[in-house]
Amino acid sequence: MRLRLHPDVESFASTAVSWYARRPMVHTVELSLLREKVPSDEAPLLMTVWDGGADAELLGAAIRTPPLPLLCGGLSAAPTDDLVGEMLAAGLTLPGVRGPRETSEPFAHRWCAVTGAVPTSTTGERLYRLGTLTAPAGVAGGHRVARKADEPVLVKYQCEFAAEAFGHVPDPARAAATLTAAAEVGNVYLLWTAAGAPVSMAGVRPPAAGVSRIGPVYTSPEVRGRGYGAAVTAAACRWALAAGATQVVLFADLDNPTSNRVYQRLGFVPVGDSATVEFRVP
User: Fold this and answer.
1) Please, where are the H alpha helices in the chain?
2) pLDDT range class, residue 54, cuts 50, 70, 90
3) Spatial contact of 249 and 28, defined as CB atoms under 8 Å apart
4) Which of 21, 103, 108, 181 is most buried (CB neighbours < 10 A)?
5) Alpha carbon of 117 to those of 63, 67, 81, 108, 175: distances in Å?
6) Are strands 45-50 and 197-204 parallel, antiparallel or unpaired?
7) Contact criterion met (CB below 8 Å) for 10 and 46
8) Is the pLDDT of residue 167 over 80?
9) How far apart are CA 105 and CA 99, in angstroms?
10) What's the pTM?
11) 56, 127, 118: which is closest to 278 by C-alpha?
């Protein structure tokens, strides 16, 4: 086995896109990042894995956009022990991994066993795909695509979502920059408004390999329980389908039973579970 560390997105994408496109729903995050040219504040890690023979066969691909964990879902065909050894020989370090549970957890176990790193937290998510959309009826208000003038409320929602979902509040200036970058690659945010004011938000991306992903979805705490989150998610589904998506997907926190029930009522069905394992590096 050998690793190839790619110096630029174009070099990586020429090999990795077709690999990820074999399972486009499972690799929706990676395919979206490649469509967006892998935005990152620091140089990303772009890695492919080969069998090392004379006629080298591709065994996997992985992306890391610092400071986030390694997206390891594309490494399921690579032998874990050999893979970890090659990565350490190449001088790579990791703060954690994210991917389908059957890939991320064995990788994390081996990485920690060899490096002495300690797993500090594990977050579980369920990947859903849309079956038959059943939009909620009777929800007050309506949706619209967010405009530049909506940036303050989008920044507020982004920061509140991050605090609730991940336990930290991002710098508002960074959140605003994220919105600008999203707009430049065609991603949109939909707002549900009621009584003339925004009450809920859903992000949605144009299709990558036919798959459009929704998220984040956020509703102000003081107006939850009124169907706004379900309504704006249904609107995001319709936007994605109109944009040409053949599949619409989203992730739901396994520790949030309410969101999982809402998505299932809308017509989403489970694809599989994902785990993010963070490390404390010795």
Assistant:
1) 9-20, 28-35, 80-89, 101-115, 151-166, 172-184, 228-242, 257-266
2) low
3) yes
4) 108
5) 20, 17, 16, 9, 31
6) unpaired
7) no
8) no
9) 9
10) 0.94
11) 118
